[in-house]
Amino acid sequence: MRAVLMRRNGGPEVLEVVEVPDPEPGPGQLLVDVSAAGVNFADVYQRQGTPPYGGELPAVPGQEGVGTVLAVGPDVEGFAEGDRVAWADVPGSYATRIAVPADRAVPVPPQVDPRNAAAVMLQGMTAHYLSHTSYPVASGDPVVVHAAAGGVGLLLTQLVKLRGGTVIGTTSTDRKGDLARQAGADHVARYDTFLDVVREVTGGAGAAVVYDGVGRTTFDHSLAALRRRGLLVFYGASSGDVPPFDTARLAAGGSLYLTRPSLPAHIATRDELLKRAADVFGWVAEGRLTVRVGGTYPLSDVSRAHADLEGRRTTGKVLLLPE
Ligand SMILES: NC(=O)c1ccc[n+]([C@@H]2O[C@H](COP(=O)([O-])OP(=O)(O)OC[C@H]3O[C@@H](n4cnc5c(N)ncnc54)[C@H](OP(=O)(O)O)[C@@H]3O)[C@@H](O)[C@H]2O)c1
What we know:
By secondary structure, the chain is of the alpha/beta class. It is about 30% helix and about 25% strand.
């Protein structure tokens, strides 16, 4: 089989495609033929070696995908050869084959296109917990979604709208702004003006919640955009991490709240994983959540996929299609 291997941390050029032996499905595992692997910003941090994502080397990156079960290991119940499954938070997904722990595998309903399934496992379940758990958006809430045309951003914008919130989305270009609007964003702004837009839309009160996956370049304005006792959900740092933070700023801003959540803590049990995946797949099947696969790349173009994601040239989901 073929896999992307990373022997050292660095730029996109450290990703190479190599031949490796097929994995054996051990106890509790499924051997899966991968038809699409998700590319996520966390894979960029892992490649760069940014803590806490670095990990041991050499490594096969990627943590999300969809595929067909080729063989079932010992002590597995409920899965059979030929089943279509998807997963998130399973290392080693940039490969033609992978051993997936059965308790992390989610059956893909026949109504959901396999590529769309791969596209929503990580970013869709993230959008789910952000809008339903970190801050359960209520009707009429003014909500900021940064990078609204990105993988998480387009899905999160739609879920906030499904819950009745008003979305102020940020993007870097007009084209991305159009995509955010198509996803339902009520207002679209650039990063240097969104604070003014929030104040205008809320009559000076501020946003109920800001979902910030951009980090260094947005953090200060995200805090400033909150209403009294508002919540900053700081869930990623695509522009770089935020310097050490003086918690007195939360009091000065009006008793603000800050959280830095992660997906694994929101799908830690099998019940929670299946519930979030079922909700997301259900919305996709019903046409209430539209999936945008903005770019597909063969495994051999993995370096270009990473360069495009880091270079802000992608929209929606980026997928690798192992050939
Ligand atoms: N905590 C969690 O559970 C969790 C789960 C999934 C993802 N995340 C985080 O969510 C964020 C979005 O992830 P994603 O995979 O959906 O990526 P993405 O949003 O598709 O891509 C990143 C976007 O960030 C924006 N951006 C702003 N400043 C940037 C900069 N200096 N360099 C690169 N991009 C910049 C760009 O959009 P514009 O060009 O429009 O600015 C870019 O397209 C990432 O920080 C990721 O780590 C967190």
